[in-house]
Automatic annotation (TrEMBL), chain A:
Transmembrane segments: none annotated. This is NEDD8-activating enzyme E1 regulatory subunit. GO terms for cellular component: cytoplasm. It comes from the Eukaryota. Keywords: Ubl conjugation pathway.
TrEMBL record, chain B:
Residues 338-421 form the E2 binding domain. Gene3D superfamilies: NAD(P)-binding Rossmann-like Domain (3.40.50.720), Ubiquitin activating enzymes (Uba3). Chain: B, domain 2 (1.10.10.520), Ubiquitin-like 2 activating enzyme e1b. Chain: B, domain 3 (3.10.290.20). One of its GO terms (cellular component) is nucleus. This is NEDD8-activating enzyme E1 catalytic subunit. Belongs to the ubiquitin-activating E1 family. UBA3 subfamily. It catalyses: ATP + [NEDD8 protein] + [E1 NEDD8-activating enzyme]-L-cysteine = AMP + diphosphate + [E1 NEDD8-activating enzyme]-S-[NEDD8 protein]-yl-L-cysteine. One of its GO terms (biological process) is protein neddylation.
């Protein structure tokens, strides 16, 4: 117990003080992952016709700002552009003196000012050239791309990233619209998903382990307690006590349906003392309120069952990631006991200090015992698998066990395209028939990418960006791709919605508005932080922000 | 194509101001008039913190030329993880001044006027000069104050007296942006119960039966400090003070065998710290300034009237129209109904007003049409009404009776109709 009470007063370091407000969200472990990561920003990809570069890259720079401030380890900006007057009207990380200089260099310099702990470098060569160096991409833990970008560059980048297992965020912000997609590795597991504490309560009242059952039985003298004691019996014990009474009257069965639970709740409610000055008891109120929520038999959530059934979990090999080794061990634990390891946390409740602390210890020791059992299984698996280099860390097993009911595995999908796989096609069609959907904005962006690619390849003039006929034929091509095997998939209304989104997008001829890029930079950075810290739940896989309607939508494309 | 007289710097922005879109109002006339109206719109930013820094940058790059900013705070090291206009060397300087100077330096042609002080230092004449007010605050109290002030300023004979209020707020990965047209649409007070305060830990738990580390910290902060250091006024920014509370809390926790107290937790409990990160601030601040641009120029329809955002699990936003409430104490004309236990004493009732989501009044005084129930100031009146505190509500008022409540934090009276349980 002594080590829980440090004697010396240790105040926070200056780094802890600087990062205090974020450490409360992702803790020291998340901060460490952040500081160990370098991100790559590909902020433009060559000229659009006569414009030295069409993309202002504000969304990219604003994203980086939100990663430099919380202390990302380092960043690399790739941007062949030279700073122009229009850049100064949208990009805050440029100044008057930047005009005519390398945009990569200037944005890098002004972003570095934000945080002296962050290391930043820049490259003025186009990304296609840099990709020839096999050492270049692997330095980075995450790749951010500001679009629209030439298709060939994007394809090359996302393919290399995929083969290296580096996540990519592709973001485009034009006028009042923005869109971004996250391409994760094939399998992306998350242990610390930070679920709502309410949903993580696992009290095991219907199937108490012996120590918990024993403490429940210890209040059989409930009636003889004085008012003060009676009003301070933790509600967990009250429920255990009345459950035993219920079972005696019901052939050993617990209340199992709504009707029985309501009856049971009445039984608890009517047992509260009301003759005291308060006219009731808070601990009984808490017990009554918990009946419907807490008296449920343990059931494995379907998302966890799916993870247990994934091939990575059922067919371990010596190269399996630690996550899967622990997941397999937890699965075995589940097969033995029909429950997951106990998380061990106890909500606060009306109780005397000592009673609460001893009840809390019962939960904690059970959680510790479960962790020990999982650890034993992990160690046995490790031996069975043979040549694993480093053994799974105890800390990782512990964190996994505490979060076991809420772990998550995302199957990474490619940056979406209209002519992508059958899943994308089906999803696009389904959503397109809904008149509230933001999918027309996605399609408009895809048309824009095509037009930009044509301009960059010298096939069209720059004026194509706002040319009615070019856009119309783009819409036709999109609709054609969506209706190739089913002409009814896109009706006239849907076509009109695409046309409207395209007209709004054309308004700035590919130009960014600072607000929308700043907002999108916030959203993209949020996803980058979740991916890098492996905490919370990253986007799967596309988000569209509509600045006209002031709202966003998520799609799995 | 950009016409020759468009300054190249504003190429992108001017395109949405000189060309209508499929969603802009049919009667809207894009062009020079719209641009002039934007550039001449005087806009006020309340708060130069996490949201405020972003808001100032965004407005300057959205073509606003005459920006004012109010903030009473100075820069602290814990601001630097998100308040990107501040550097290590700025610690201790006033936020409003440093932020204004930075953005003025960076964005040519924008004028930013800082005021270091409280919003309550300014009167209606001051607020009347602005076209739009954008709030980036962390205090519900300040929001309620500016809201009631702006609602009070509305004169239906004079459309200029109606100042759109755009409000942003964040907590961790979550936030919201809302547009309020004072007296016309749902106001901050109408929506008060959507932002309920965290329930306080009962004093008896803190004093006698602590169970959580937080209870021990509250004890050290609220009770031990009073007993042992009552001559020092507690300053939550003084690390020595926090250190003392931390030690006292540790001692108490040891006595009750409660593990888990840390310095960080102590600071969090004592200062009621809300987690804050750059990215959420960026999202919410830009959401508010995007609405400011739309309201100032009509280039697209503005938000009606609430967007909530949650970023823990993917990107989630929900945009809806919050309702204007006829019983809103600020913009409605009916008294708000409060259901109460007639056997509750006035003292307990007063305490609950601080926590009830629909009231949230910390230092209320109150009266019925006929008599004063409790009055905090001046002291003579307090003394005359103090005996009422011990009386039950049913001994003081009738079921369904209306009371007027005032609170030193606000300039208006709140009307409640007390309905007996």
């Amino acid at each position: 117990m002594t080590e829980a009470f440090p004697r010396a007063l240790v105040g926070p370091s200056s780094k802890e003080r600087r990062y205090d407000r974020q450490l409360r969200l992702w803790a020291a472990s998340g901060q460490q992952s952040l500081e160990d990561s370098r991100v790559l920003l590909v902020n433009s990809d060559g000229s659009w016709g006569k414009q030295n570069t069409g993309v202002s890259g504000v969304v990219g720079v604003e994203t980086l700002k939100n990663l430099v401030l919380p202390g990302i380890g380092g960043f690399t900006i790739v941007d062949p552009a030279v700073v122009t007057e229009p850049d100064l009207g949208v990009n805050f990380f440029l100044e008057e003196a930047s005009l005519g200089k390398s945009r990569a260099e200037e944005t890098c310099r002004l972003l570095r000012e934000l945080n002296p702990d962050v290391e930043g470098t820049f490259q003025t060569k186009p990304i296609a050239e840099l990709l020839r160096d096999p050492e270049f991409l692997p330095q980075h833990k995450l790749i951010l791309v500001s679009g629209p970008v030439k298709r060939s560059s994007l394809v090359a980048l996302r393919k290399s990233a995929k083969s290296l297992g580096i996540p990519v965020l592709y973001a485009r912000s034009v006028g009042f619209y923005s869109i971004f997609s996250l391409q994760l590795a094939d399998v992306f597991p998350i242990v610390e998903t930070h679920p709502d504490p309410e949903s993580t309560q696992d009290l095991r009242l219907l199937n108490p382990w012996p120590e918990l059952a024993a403490v429940g039985a210890s209040i059989s003298n409930l009636e003889s307690l004085d008012d003060h004691q009676h009003g301070h019996v933790p509600y967990i014990l009250l429920l255990l006590h009345y459950l035993e009474q219920w079972k005696e009257a019901h052939d050993g069965n617990v209340p199992s349906n709504y009707k029985e639970k309501s009856e049971f709740r009445e039984m608890v409610r009517s047992s509260a003392r009301t003759s005291n000055p308060e006219g009731g008891e808070e601990n009984y109120d808490e017990a009554v309120a918990a009946v419907l929520k807490s008296l449920n038999p343990f059931s494995l959530r379907s998302s966890i069952r799916e993870i247990f059934e994934m091939e990575e979990c059922t067919r371990l090999n010596s190269g399996s990631a630690d996550f899967w080794v622990i997941a397999a061990a937890v699965r075995e634990f589940y097969q033995r006991h029909n429950v997951l390891p106990l998380p061990g946390s106890l909500p606060d409740m009306k109780a005397q200090s000592a009673d609460y602390v001893s009840l809390q210890n019962i939960y904690k020791s059970k959680a510790r015992k479960d962790i020990e059992e999982v650890t034993e299984i992990v160690r046995r698996i490790e031996v069975q698998l043979g040549t694993r280099v480093v053994e799974v860390a105890d800390k990782d097993i512990e964190v996994f066990c505490k979060n076991a009911a809420h772990i998550k595995v995302i199957r990474g999908r490619d940056i979406p395209q209209v002519a992508g796989d059958a899943h994308s096609l089906k999803t696009l069609r389904n959503h397109l028939s809904n008149d509230e959907s933001s999918i027309p904005i996605f399609l408009a962006f895809e048309i824009l990418d095509d037009i930009v690619t044509d301009i960059q390849d010298g096939k069209r003039p720059e004026a194509a960006l706002d040319d009615e006929t070019v856009w119309e034929s783009g819409i036709e091509r999109m609709v054609g791709a969506l209706t190739s095997d089913d002409p009814s998939a896109v009706d006239d209304d849907a076509r009109e919605r695409i046309r409207k989104a395209a007209r709004e997008l054309r308004r700035t001829q590919g130009g960014e508005l600072h607000n929308i890029s700043a907002l999108t930079g916030g959203l993209v950075a949020q996803e980058a932080l979740k991916v890098i810290t492996r905490q919370y739940g990253p986007l799967d896989n596309t988000c569209i922000f509509d600045g006209v309607r002031s709202g966003s939508e998520m799609y799995k494309l | 194509m950009a016409s020759p007289d468009v300054p190249p710097r504003w190429t992108h922005l001017y395109k949405v101001l000189t060309k209508s879109g499929p969603f802009s109002d049919e009667d809207w006339v894009p062009g020079p008039e719209t641009i002039t109206s934007l550039e001449s719109s005087k806009i006020l930013v309340i708060g130069a913190g996490g949201l405020g820094c972003e808001i100032l940058k965004n407005l300057a790059l959205s073509g606003f030329k005459d920006i004012h900013v109010i903030d009473m705070d100075t820069i602290d090291i814990s601001n630097l993880n998100r308040q990107f206009l501040f550097r290590q060397a700025d610690i201790g300087k006033p936020k409003a001044e440093v932020a204004a100077a930075f953005v003025e330096r960076r964005v040519k042609g924008v004028k930013i006027t800082p005021f270091v002080g409280k919003i309550q230092d300014k009167d209606e004449d001051y607020y009347m000069q602005f076209k739009i007010i954008v709030c980036g605050l962390d205090s519900i109290e300040a929001r309620r104050w500016i809201n009631s002030t702006l609602v009070g300023m509305v004169d239906f004979e004079d459309p200029e007296s109606l100042k759109p209020l755009i409000d942003g707020g964040t907590e961790g990965f979550k936030g919201q942006a809302r547009v309020i047209l004072p007296s016309l649409s749902s106001c901050i007070e109408c929506q008060l119960d959507m932002h309920a305060p965290r329930p306080a830990v009962p004093l008896c738990t803190i004093a006698t039966i602590p169970r959580q580390p937080q209870h021990c910290i509250e004890w050290a902060h609220q009770i031990a400090w009073q007993e042992q250091r009552k001559d020092d006024s507690f300053d939550s920014d003084d690390l020595e003070h926090i250190g003392w509370v931390y030690s006292a809390a540790l001692e108490r926790a040891k006595q009750f065998q409660i593990p888990g107290i840390t310095f960080q937790m102590t600071q969090g409990v004592v200062k009621n710290i809300i987690p804050a990160i750059a990215s959420t601030n960026a999202v919410i601040a830009a959401a508010t300034t995007s609405e400011a641009l739309k309201i100032a120029t009509s280039c697209n329809p503005y938000l009606e009237n609430y967007m909530m955002y949650a970023g823990e699990e993917g990107v989630y936003t929900y945009t809806f129209e919050a309702e204007k409430k006829p019983d809103c104490p600020v913009c409605g004309n009916l008294a708000r109904k409060l259901t109460v236990d007639p056997n509750m004493t006035l003292e307990v009732f007063i305490e609950t007003l601080g926590e009830r989501p629909e009231a949230q009044l910390k230092k209320p005084s109150m009266r019925t049409e006929e008599k004063t129930l409790y009055q905090r100031f001046p002291p003579q009146l307090e003394e005359q009404t103090r005996h009422n505190l011990k009386l039950k509500l049913k001994e003081l008022i009738e079921d369904g009776q209306e009371i007027a409540v005032s609170d030193p934090a606000y300039t208006i009276d709140f009307r409640f109709r007390l309905s007996f349980q």
